[in-house]
Amino acid sequence: MHALMQYIQSYLDSDKTPGGAGNIFWATVYILLVFAGLSVAVIAMNWLERKILAHMQVRLGPMRVGPHGLLQPIADAIKLLLKEDIIPAEADAVVFWIAPFIVVLAAFTVFVVVPFGPTHAITDMNIGILFMLGVSSLSVLGIVTAGWASNSHYPLIGALRSSAQMVSYEVAMGLAVVSVILMTSLNDQSTGTLSMIGIVQAQLAQQEWFIFKFFPLGLIGFGIFAIAMVAETNRAPFDLPEAESELTAGFHTEYSGFRWSLFFLAEYSAMIAVSSIAVTLWLGGWLRPFPNLLVAPPWDLVFSLFPAITFLLLAAMCFYNTARMPKHPLFKVQTIGLAGFGVVLGLIGLILFLPAVRLRVNDIFWFSAKVAGFMYLYIWYRGTFPRYRFDQLMKVGWKVLLPTGLALLVLTAFVGMRTELWAELQGVWRR
Amino acid sequence: MTDPTSLSPLDLETPDKTFLDANELVINMGPQHPATHGVLRVILRLDGEKVMGLECVIGYLHRGVEKIAENRTYTMFNPYVDRMDYVAAVSNGLGYCEAVEKLLNVEAPPRAQYVRVILTELNRMASHQLWLGTHALDIGAITPLFYTFRDREEILKIFEKYCGARLTTHAFRIGGLQYETYDGFEKDVKTFVAFVRPKIDEYEELLTTNRIWLERTKGVGKISGKDAIALGVTGPVLRASGVKWDIRKALPYANYKNFDFDIPTGENGDTYDRYLVRMAEFRQSLRIIEQAVDHIPEGSIMAKVPKVIKPPVGEIYHSIEAPKGELGYFIVSDGSTQPYRIRVRPPSFVNLQALEVMCRGQLVADVIAVIGTLDIVLGEVDR
Amino acid sequence: MLHITTLHYLVLGAALFLLGVIGVLTRRNVVIVLMSIELILNAVNLNLVAFSRYWQGIHGPTALHGQVFAIFVITDAAAEAAVGLGILIAFFRNKETVNVDEVNLLKW
Amino acid sequence: MNPAGMIPAGTNPPVATPFFFYLLAAIMVIGGVMVITRKNAVHSAMALITTLLAQAALYLMLYAPFVAGVQIILYAGGIMVLFLFVIMLISVERAEKERQFNKQWPVGIVAAAALGGLFIAVYTTTTKGRALFPEGRMTYGETQNTQQIAALLFDRTAGQYMFAFEIASLLLLVAIIGAVVMAKKRI
Lengths: 431, 383, 108, 187
Prior knowledge:
The structure holds 4 protein chains of 4 kinds. By secondary structure, chain A is mainly alpha-helical. In chain A, 70% of the residues lie in helices and 0% in strands. Chain A contains 18 helices and no strands. Chain A has helices at residues 2-12, 18-21, 24-56, 72-82, 93-109, 128-137, 139-149, 153-185, 196-205, 217-232, 244-247, 257-282, 297-304, 306-324, 332-351, 355-384, 390-416, 418-430. In chain A, helix 4 (72-82) crosses helix 12 (257-282) and helix 5 packs antiparallel against helix 7 (139-149). The model of chain A has no long low-confidence stretch (mean pLDDT 84). Chain B is 46% helix and 13% strand. In chain B, a hairpin with a 2-residue loop joins strand 2 (41-47) and strand 3 (50-57). The radius of gyration of chain B is 21 Å and the shape is globular. Chain D has a domain at 12-98: NADH-ubiquinone/plastoquinone oxidoreductase chain 6, subunit NuoJ (Four Helix Bundle (Hemerythrin (Met), subunit A), Up-down Bundle). In chain D, 70% of the residues lie in helices and 0% in strands. In chain D, helix 1 packs antiparallel against helix 2 (41-61) and helix 2 packs antiparallel against helix 3 (65-89). Chains B and D meet through loops of B and loops of D.
């Protein structure tokens, strides 16, 4: 027992990721934690999307299952699991069966390198960002095979659209990412790196989030990525592969029940994954806001209180809504449930005030908060924009984002190397 | 390859050369499809995503309304017309009642005329709101649907208060109105006008200058004024092609000639212009309602109509400007209590003919946009 | 268990290479022939990377020539796949078949 | 020699290397067999993807993470999508019903068997086969792999492959033009 505690303590004091330290036990724990957290995030995202979208559209959204529909995603999950698993008679059964798993695997595997904090990642790969882009691009294989295996026209068109879309936007995405990798190397403090943790540490060393570096070049790169990532995850306004008004449901038209829910799971975790890339590359990853301006220790304290305060605010919201619940006896269970939820949130908030916990989860909190901001953007887009047409989508990808990305890359290199270039030119002049 | 926009008829036997020279993809869009506004079935011949030709198959909602009329008295048939264009039931009723009145040679009293105009214009707005919501939904903007339905609800509330029904209103009778307006009708209408005016700006804020909306609608489903006239297209679709034709002005019925309003027209005849025309019609309808509601005269609501309606032998064609276009009733009377034949000229049915011309050479996504912009109601197409 | 040596990788590479050769020599479907070529290229790549590791053991960590070579091979494979599939599409358009033994005309 | 002692300090010792090697090798060989035996081209492509991913894992075991990343992003994510795309454009059903192997398949098998025999001869019969690649060479952690490859490719002093790199980009350009010309409807 004592040895175990010592083992755990030795990790807690380590400054490496479990994968980096070759610590299989902690790596396993982290994998489980990350995937459990991811599943919870997807469930929460499901509820939040419905609620936020509903409130944007002057309606209430789910209200029946649990207080304010809090248990709706769970009810939906149970429904989907209990549904009949239909494989169309003319479908290619094996491929049809495998396709959703490819998508889910691709969407989940990328989280191996997502850095939630300097030590809070499953592992830190030398090729982190390359790995993320590569593995997330594998999901297109699942989508294409799903559409093909359904042996039906709408899924096939959806799959063709989807593959063309994802392949074209990957190019623009890659260019934006490369410009960031250039930024990690173009300074005095650090050498270039592809590692996700290394990129955030480069931002820390340079005292600047890359979105602000070489203004406005960082911002443009971020913009390209922010557009491309929406297309990459097939979300509105680029949700052509599953445009319900055109192709009924696109590549997953023939899927139902559990298999469909896998696509759903993959879509949302892919959204979280690309948002994590954007946060890591441009928004300073786990760094708190203003790491360069507000550096005094009191500011550290203030910012470390944020997680606890956030949870307390959420708890307060729960209690406020508990008070607003109808007093009818029919709502008794719901009222108690909501109050209980508020108590749980409040307790978490109080625990987060403990210094030992506070300092350790601070990174994770800021990372999650930034990702959550992106998630809100996704929902906002969906509530606001009409859908692009296929040729327009391709036009945006190839004729706008790609040239901009190329120009950005060249400009970043020039701006980053300006002193060396200047010295070189002077040398040529003197000669 | 032939010019895809030419007016040649659809030739399903000899497929055009396509990518890989293979036969093109034939897709059945509908009858169960979320974006065909009911049970329209469109057989699309695609080259990749490009529409090489299409054919509409209708009749999935055919109920034989015209045939039913031959076995009903003129009064009994009145509720049936509500079931044709069920989102603009009031307009249907107005057209039918006026046609029979014309046949009987009676005229509804002024008070009834004013109430008729108010209700019809309210119904036009309700119809356009439904069109806007579903059209935007087809193009991918999901939010306008809920906004328009929220505001359409107010119109339906007025209908419900007036005649007890929300959708199939059966508001008018041959010779006038069955019900006197309820207390506070004018106030309700005025409140609604004040309520809805900023809401229309709200819809426009969401869409009119939205870049994606512009890209999706500008230049899509173009039809020239000449083609539109040749195909018999009417209503906002015709007006968006630059033809200033509105039966309310051209062949005034009810008492539209007493009101001051404009006919909004477009220039390019594309989906965006049709959108703009309909948005302008919202405002014109509000103008008409405002003028009418202030001047509802006192008096009777029913003209002198015999208990048993037995029009003289003869035939009559009467058309009105329904929200979707020219709605005409051709009634042949053999002097009995039942019409010998009723033929309805439904605007959706005729406008649907233009679908092929508008869609040739466009992409699948545009077919959806064009079906939406034609504003068809399958209940009316199939009757 | 045995320690894994360079030879293990070479044997695996040889096996894949043979599979690829068999595929190229016996299959009729052009797509599968192209995929077999990819298999061959990959077998070569595996050998190159294994050699690279071996070379690193002799000449130090920067002796990554095998890996660089592997990257060039991957580039080449991408070019080959693009052109090969382009030819395949042109072929299919003209002959409506994907069988490689029906390519008996140089011009049609 | 003790292989574990070769690992430089600071890098993690490899875990269960033989087990993973044999697992991945088995996946690759089975995948390869599936590629050349399946009737349906899509099934072949899926098998090939499995093989390629297993190979990427082997690259990681060989301390070549950058090549592994390139393998995943280019091969599995790029080239194979292209293959699947083309398979969907051409009709699969008809090709499935036809004869799968060409007429000279016995010759092909014999030639391949001869080549295999050659390999076996090289690797087993000569004593040099083993002596050529002595085992237990020092392995290096992957910490600086990408930078070192970049140095070989681009560095001013150490970059030996700059010219080859430029030629490769030219090759890609030619391939792009070739693919576009080939796939066009009318030239």
